[in-house]
Amino acid sequence: MSLRSLPDFPWDSLAPIKARASSHAGGLIDLSIGTPVDPTPQIIQDALCAAADAPGYPQTHGTPDLREAVAVWFEARRGVRHLDPAGVMPTIGSKELVAWLPTLLDLGPGDVVAFPRVAYPTYDVGARLAGATPLAVDALTSLGPVTSKTAPKLLWLNTPGNPNGKVLGVDHLRKVVEWARRHGVIVASDECYAELDWRDRSVGDWRHEPPTTPSLLDPRVTGGTMDGMLVCYSLSKQSNLAGYRAAFLAGDPALVQRVLEVRKHAGFMVPWPVQRALVAALADPDHVAEIKARYAVRRATLLSAVESFGLRVDDSEAGLYLWATAGEDCWVTLNRLADKGILAAAGAFYGPTGAQHVRIALTGTDAQIADAAGRLAGA
Ligand SMILES: Cc1ncc(COP(=O)(O)O)c(C=O)c1O
């Protein structure tokens, strides 16, 4: 335990299981973290290198053309029209934004920050860093009747979800927005897996047709006004550049301005070469389609192997993970996978509701995924 009663870092507890998996004769296949393994696309590398001469400080708000590129991308890929570039800001990857948003919004003791019951652990961490009260909720109904005094100040959504790959539909999102506006709750939606939607599409469509995972900022959801709504979006996964730390926040310009003011004081600037790389990445849907096609093959291979190993895969309709269960404690399943030399993440990392699940990432090389499938099928 440390600052603001932060929990121990969950992945540290995998060390003994990692050691067990590493002793497999064929070596360790680490599928415990969603960290891309394929090369960063050349056009993005070129944009980064071309901007290597950067003697001056970059703009915290991002350059006007970067903010415009985000607005254009939102319209082309997410069906979000009229996003005001003043309501866009680059972030140093989205994990830092998730961890600091409650603080940047000036939330603190006595304020509640709510997030899904099965969720990426950083929503909880962000509430704690602000000294606010973290609250995991299944659905709005589990909050019970709220007044503007007892409502959370901030509600996190994550669609498609990590770890379970669940996609929230337009109706669901619209109900959340209506409820949030009635109670003065800010909604922040973390949407970095939106392009990686596995529901009934042929590979050829991916480049020309936007994904069907709706954004919180979709006009069908918001009714056309972005008041109180924020989306954070990362290119780490869809563009293989987690090492660049390239992401952005977009939505209600008044809220983005509030966050921006603090970030200017705190020095939260995205490096200039990364801002240029972001512009290049956003303008090129082709590399995203290629990356997606690669994951589609890996997903199909791993899915049938995991099922033949006796696990049931739940949800997982989008994103980079299989959310799988054997109906037993996740640590038992993790040990059984470790005996095959495969390391997955414990469902318990994502809240007590995940205690019987494991999260298996699709982020292995083709050779690793084929090897993992072979080991699982030979169960
Ligand atoms: C739901 C979700 N949000 C945010 C992040 C952070 O992404 P990054 O910090 O690489 O932009 C991740 C990474 O795994 C994630 O799964």
Structural overview:
With 379 residues, the chain is an alpha/beta fold. It is built from twelve helices and 13 strands. The strands form three sheets. The chain has a seven-stranded mixed beta sheet, with helices on both faces. The two termini are 39 Å apart. β5 (154-158), α6 and β6 (186-190) form a beta-alpha-beta unit. The protein folds into two domains: 10-39 and 287-378, Aspartate Aminotransferase, domain 1; 55-283, Aspartate Aminotransferase, domain 2, CATH 3.40.640.10. The chain has helices at residues 15-22, 42-50, 64-78, 95-104, 122-129, 170-183, 219-222, 253-266, 272-282, 285-308, 330-338, 366-377, and strands at residues 29-30, 88-92, 112-116, 133-137, 154-158, 186-190, 229-234, 246-251, 312-314, 321-325, 342-343, 345-346, 357-361. Helix content is 36%, strand content 15%. It is globular. The structure holds pyridoxal-5'-phosphate (PLP). Pyridoxal-5'-phosphate (PLP) binds at residues 34, 93-95, 98, 120, 158, 162, 190, 192, 234, 236, 242, 247.
Could you give me the name of the CATH homologous superfamily of the largest domain?
Type I PLP-dependent aspartate aminotransferase-like (Major domain)
How would you sum up the major sheet? 7 strands, mixed
In round numbers, the mean pLDDT is 94
Question: Helical proportion?
Answer: 25-40%
Observed structural traits:
379 residues; 2 domains; binds pyridoxal-5'-phosphate; Aspartate Aminotransferase, domain 2; single chain; 13 strands; seven-stranded mixed beta sheet; 12 helices
